[in-house]
Amino acid sequence: MINGKDIYNTLSALVPMYVPMILAYGSVRWWKIITPEQCTGINRFVAFFSAPFLNFYFLATNNPYTINFGFIAADTLQKLVILGALFLWSAFTKSGSIDWTITLFSLSTLPNTVVVGVPLLTAMYGDSSTSLMSHIFVMQGVVWFTLMLVLYEYRGARNLISKQFPQNGGFITSFTVDSDVISLSENEPLQTEAETGENGEVHVVVKSPSFNKSCNCSTSNRCAKDIFSMRRSFSFNTTRDLRDQGSDRGMSKIHDQNQDAVKDESIVNLKAMGDTEIDESVDRMKHSLSEGKKVAKIEEGDAYNKKQQMPATSVITRLVLTMVWKNLIRNPNTYACATGLAWSLISFRWNIKFPSIVDGSILIMAKTGTGTAMFSMGLFMALQTKIVACGNTWATISMVARFVVGPAVIATAAIAIGIRGVLLRIAIVQAALPQSVLSFVFAKEYNHHTDIISTAVIFGTVISLPVTILYFVLLGLN
After folding, report:
1. What is the dihedral of CA 252, 253, 256, 258, to 10 degrees?
2. Which of 47, 15, 74, 177 is closest to 409 using CA atoms?
3. TM spans, by residue (predicted)?
4. Model confidence pLDDT, tens digit, residues 267-278
5. Please, where are the H alpha helices in 30-144?
6. What does DSSP assign to residue 436?
7. Is the pTM of this model over 0.70?
């Protein structure tokens, strides 16, 4: 049974985490101590120093050989069930889409494991839960956030192709991405160059917008060549040339001019014809116009079908994996987590410890992680125009996904594979933690449903205290 002391211990662990968040919010909104420009510097400190050191130390000091495969299996099954349901909804319903699959999966399966989860669950269920959280954190970082990155880049690739190659995307056989392109996000429009091979294959080079700045008068010849190259990539035969260069209006105008010429010539000829010849001429005109309309409809249908074409799956896959790799190698947390996990495997296998001077240097930075992360969250809240940015309806949906759907699915998955007792309670409570901040970083980077995810992060963090305590109490009644 849960007693008053247990609840007090939980509050003692969780309430202090909200102090830096409140101070940061007040520093921007109430006291005007920190300017919006200074918030950027603080956030970069968290992203490049305190958070990576925290993640490294967290993984390096937890034994990876004590992994509970049943607990990991329940968490994995929860995410696979939700993801599978969303993919089916996206594939077989008109309301479903890759956009909503990404957002709803993020809302229902990606909790704030380290910053909020570890101190909260340690207070509730003891130090043994810390090791479980480290294993969840590894899976989340290695598998699920990487999967989110894949989905976001896949969405970005589809949008890039549909916007810049709306009619001949199916002919693209390769993509080359310049080193200055970090992601396929829509925050800044990317530039593409395309060339056509001998067999009609289109080879595309993706460049960042900064390429346009170097295209000035002194390089006008190169610019003209680039434009010509892009236009040339749309050329496949005489008829497609006009349509694929975006000259549908030109084609329509030529068609109309031809029809007008036919009409004018026929009117002139009518003055020199008899009644029978007039009737035959009128019939020929009607037949010609009818055939013209059929051709126009066929061309319109071809153009519509061509707009739906995408490159081969292998081409899209290579592009997406290239962008995912470029993102991962630029992220300091990738190196922090990889080296932390590697050191833990070595340390707990051969009982090797850090020298005290190294351990102290890492620890002093790692200890700033939780506090500065919550402080950064407070800055983020203060910079928003309102806490519920997406409106009440989507705020409610996001909270239901975060605090009801996720815990309910993992409870079902855990029970299905035989998990009971304290382990089941830990699984449910960790699924009811507030939204991961990294999910908002992704949403912001790819300019996708930022209002919904920001509401989930901010509002979810605020109400997570009573929600998790409620789960703690209800699950402890037996």
Report:
1. -110
2. 74
3. 12-30, 42-60, 66-92, 104-126, 132-152, 362-383, 395-417, 423-443, 455-477
4. 445 475 555 555
5. 36-45, 51-60, 69-92, 98-109, 118-125, 128-139
6. P
7. yes
